[in-house]
Structure formats: C-alpha cells, structure tokens
Amino acid sequence: MQAKVSFADAFKFWLRLGFISFGGPAGQIAIMHRELVEEKRWISEGRFLHALNYCMLLPGPEAQQLATYMGWLMHRTWGGVMAGALFVLPSLFILVGLSWVYVAFGNVPWVAGLLYGIKPAVAALVLQAVHRIGSKTLKQPRQAPFLWAIAVTSFAAVAVFNVPFPWVVLAAALTGWVGQRWAPAQFTQGAGHGSAKSAGAKTEHLETPVFVIGDNTPTPLHARFKKSRLLTVLVVGLALWLLPMAALVACQGWQGTLAQMGWFFTKAALLTFGGAYAVLPYVYQGGVEQFAWLTGPQMMDGLALGETTPGPLIMVVAFVGFLGGWSQQVLGPDALFLGAALAATVVTWFTFLPSFIFILAGGPLIESTHGKLKFTAPLTAVTAAVVGVIANLALFFIAAVAHKQGSEGGFMSAIDLPALSLACLAAVALIRFKLGVMPVIVGCALVGLACRLAGWA
Can you give the pLDDT at residue 289? Predict the structure, then answer.
C-alpha cells in the first residue's frame, strides 16, 4: 500500500479538477478514473466502480457525488465536503460571470464558432466514457453475457421504447441480484480485458498495481457504519436546509422568488434520477413554463454555456437562477447583479446539498457491502445498464453533431461533414492516443472557430 495522500495534495487535485472537468458527467467520470485510478493510484479499480455504482443509483449529479465520495473515503467528512465543493465552485463563479455578460451585452458572435467545435468534442468524450466504463465493467462477451445483455437491453429500452431511467436502474439491479445466484462469476468486478493472471505468473508481480486504498485495504475507521454518525449527518443536513430556507421566507415570504427557487430545486435534486440529462426537462418545465424565470431560447443558451464550462452540466441551474433573479429583480432594480448572483447561489446550494447528505450518510453503508457479492452484483448490473444508457446518449450527440441545421436538400447535404469529421478525430485522439481532455476541447474549439470564419460551416 502506498503512503497516505496528504490533505494538501488532495486539495490541489480537487481544485484542478474543478477547472478541467469538461465533457458532462461521462467525461468527468472518465477524467476522475484516469487521474485517481490509472495515474495517481489513490483508489483501486474495484473501489472506484463500487462507489460509482452507488452514485448512479442516486438522484442528482453523479460525477459530483462521486468526487464527494472519493474525497470522503480518503479524508473523512471535510475531505468529502472539499472535493464536492471544489467540483462546483469554479463553475459557479464562471457561470455567474458569463451570465452577466449574456444579460448585459447580449450574444457574442464568435461564441457560435467555438460552440461549433466544442460540440463534436463533447460527443467524443461521451464515446470515450462508453469505451472506458464498458471495457472495465462488461469484460469479454463470452465471460459475462448477462452484463452484455443488460447493457444492450438498457440501450434499446431508452433509445427505442423511451423507458424512464429509474425503471432501467431498478430492472438492472433486480437482474443482478437474481443473476449472482446463478452465475456469480459474471458479476465480479475488475476482470475487464482479462486479469493480471492472463499476463502470466512470470510478470504478475511486476504488473500488480499498488493503491493507497486498494480492493483489499481495510475500511478506514471513519467509513465504518455507526448509527450515531448517521443520525448526526441527517440532523446537520436538515439544519443546513431549514436555516437558509427560513431566512429566505422571513425576508421575502414563501411566495418570494428566492424561496420558490429553493423549494423547486430541492425537489429537482430529490426527485430526478439519471443525472443532468434527466433533470433538464424538469428544470425547463419549471423555469420556463411554470415560473417564467427565463425564456425557452435563453434556456438553450444556458445549456450551451453549461456544456462549455467546467463542472457538472446541471450547473445550468446557476444560469437559470441568475436570469430569474435578474428578471424578477429579487433585490430591487438598483441591485440587479447582486440579486441575480444571490439567486444563482441559492439555486446551487439547494441543488447540491442533498448530494452531500446522500454521500456522507450513505457512504458507510455502501463501504460495508464492499466485497459482498449479493450487494455488489446489483450495483455491477446497474453499471452495465448505465453503459447502455451512455451509449444511447453518445448516439444522440453524434446524430446532433452530424445533422446540419437549416439544411433543406437531400441526405448528403444534410450531413455536417466538418463537424462529423472533427468528432471522429477527437474520438481517435481520446481513445486511441489517450490525449488529455483539455487539449482536445481547446483544439476542437479553435478548429470550429476557424471553420466558421472560413465559411465552411
């Protein structure tokens, strides 16, 4: 086992991650896997996937929850708070600034060119996530036909029959629970692309990685389940929700914009499963149609900003909050920016608070199931299902990139060849040559801008 990771080193990593976590949840999970498991070796493959499986079951942003879990596992409660907060705060500050530019000065023409190049990069990042998570979870088809069947069925359920994500997760978990009784070997983790044994006994000792927290590392004391600790986390979490809500109600009343934002986004955080892409329709319905905090086109512009800034995609809620606070003048007409920034902060607080409670309260329970197949098999099956769901998302993104907007000609004229080619090149760079996420995104953005300036797109 390696030496323990210092809190300072962890702080530097989580701060850096907050500024480079592009690509939506799939891309962010891929970044964390590469950094924590493959390069730094702070967390083993098995423990990473075990935590990921749990986060996939929760409502809310799974990438931010996974970061909170990893920080908590290494450095107790404050480590989890630090990791989760640093995953969000850079994006909040950036989006508040961009939102102010958006409402004060209108659209900037060159942004369209950058977005044109970034969208293919996002599609490639999702493809990379399918490759990374799928290769680690599904193993070879002959080794784990059940897992492959779950992934394919989940893909079809979402792509063809529009089955809601919670039902896909529930069906996969039940399949894993039943399947481990009949074929337990198919639901064990860590055998993707063969195990260390396949390399031969002669080199096995050279290829076995050493992790700070490995598969066989005893559960840290702070991560062991205690009823008193669970009760403490729940009481503190409830207080952290009640006190700000009471302050908002006392200042502006229950029907005030800020109190309604707090309540609406609490429901969004608790009632929506499947990550950011599942919560966006709910946010659109509430923010645009129910409360009229912003318009439909503004919501689409906010989504574009969310796609091109670091942090979880669900940070688009900060844009919704900012525009709602601006349009509703929550602090009066003489403090438009301060009111809008306050609204963005309120929305972010109530959106992410439940995620911290889920991890800090449920983490010890999940750690107690590590290595117990009857508990881990349903979670492994859920990860297989998520591979199918992410594959469907990748197909959707590729189709969106490949379709030329406003085209009225035949099939070939409707295909955006520059964008599709850029997506293919980005995928090859990420998967085949393992280039970093930031160089690929920046490169694609510059190429997209050049294509727009040259009139090729």
Answer: 84
How far is the CA of 85 from the CAs of 28, 67, 109, 276, 349, in angstroms? 15, 9, 33, 17, 10
Mark 21-35 as b/e (b = at least 16 C-beta within 10 Å).
bbbbbbbbbbbbbbb
pTM comes to 0.69
**Which residue is associated with the tokens 């009949």?**
182
Cα distance between residue 65 and residue 68, in whole Å? 5
Buried-state track 411-431, b at ≥16 Cβ within 10 A, e below 16? eeeeebebbbebbebbbebbe
Q: At which residue do the structure tokens 């520059």 appear?
A: 418
> Which pLDDT value is given to residue 414?
76
CB atoms within 10 A of CB 237: 17
Half-sphere exposure (Cβ direction) of 362: Cα atoms closer than 13 Å: 17
Q: How far apart are CA 108 and CA 453, in angstroms?
A: 14
Residue-range domain boundaries for the chain: 1-190+223-457
First to last CA, the chain: 53
d(CA 77, CA 82): 9
User: Two tokens at 281?
Assistant: 């329709």
Q: Which residue bears the tokens 């050049």?
A: 450
Instruction: Give the whole-angstrom CA distance, residue 318 versus residue 100.
Output: 12
Count of other CB atoms within 10 angstroms of residue 437? 22
Mean pLDDT, each 10-residue run in order, the chain (457 residues): 80 90 74 88 88 81 92 94 94 92 71 78 80 78 86 90 78 88 74 35 50 82 88 96 97 94 91 63 82 84 75 88 94 94 96 94 82 72 82 80 66 78 94 84 89 82
CA 216 to chain centre: 27
Residues in Cβ contact with 150 at an 8 Å cutoff, skipping those fewer than 6 apart: 172, 175, 176, 381, 384, 385, 388
Token pair listed for 161: 């029959």
